[in-house]
Amino acid sequence: MRKGLFLSVEGIDGAGKSSHVDFIMEYLQNKGLEVVKTREPGGTKLGEDIRNLLLNSESMNQTSELLLYFASRQELIEQVIVPNLNNGVCVLADRFVDSSIAYQGSGRMLGVEKVKTVYSLLEPHIKPDLTFLFDAPLHVAMERLNSARTKDRIEKESLEFFERVQNSYYKLAEENSDRIKLISTEGKFSETRKKITEYLDLLLEKQ
Ligand code: TYD
Predict the structure, then answer these.
(1) Of 58, 73, 116, 173, which sees the most CB atoms within 10 A?
(2) What is the domain range of residue 164?
(3) Which of 161, 117, 115 has the alpha carbon at shortest distance from 142?
């Protein structure tokens, strides 16, 4: 009974995702859509507690990490995403399952199949209509990350970790080219935004 559009934004830390999420939201609102923005991990009371554990614990078993990301996601799906979609509201998700595939499946090397198995347990099993994958060369993303605020547990990972995450995102984009749109954030801000609006307009035309 899903009526609203479901969009997600993805990318490695430092790829520039955060700079564009609010722009996407405002663009859709100006087109007359009601939009709710979510973030992962988090977005619900329990989800925010889980976020704190995930990002601030000193160490964590990798499978526990995977399951906690999904626990936060299941809460968000049930309490926020599905009710809004069913009411015809557009949901803009700051990260969704692709993050777990890239970060835990490939970054942590747990394997994509393991992540997909956990994904299959989510109720209901939903998928975004469109995903923006924000991307910058690894050294650019790492420079941005190093000059930013204090790093959380994931952001403290090695260059090799982020390389695996980025390559996993590229593979996902290749395998799901209808859904995932790769957007480089290396060029001018205005160019990035032009690309975003082109994809959004195409999506809205199809509605
Ligand atoms: P995010 O909120 O995008 O980072 P910030 O807003 O602090 O820039 O994401 C939090 C971190 O969690 C980020 O490093 C990516 C990581 N993450 C995973 O490893 N797996 C997941 O499934 C999700 C949703 C996020």
Answers:
(1) 73
(2) 6-205
(3) 161
The CATH number of whichever domain residue 179 belongs to comes to: 3.40.50.300
- Asked if the structure places residue 160 within a domain, the reply is yes
pLDDT value of residue 1: 62
- On whether residue 1 sits in a domain, the answer given is no
Å from CA of 96 to ligand 1 middle: 9
Number of domains making up the chain: 1
pLDDT < 70 regions, the chain: 1
Give the mutation target among 67, 81, 95 for probing the ligand 1 site: most ligand atoms within 8 A of CB. 95
| Measured distance CA(55)–CA(34) in Å, rounded | 31
How far apart are alpha carbons 17 and 203 in whole angstroms? 20
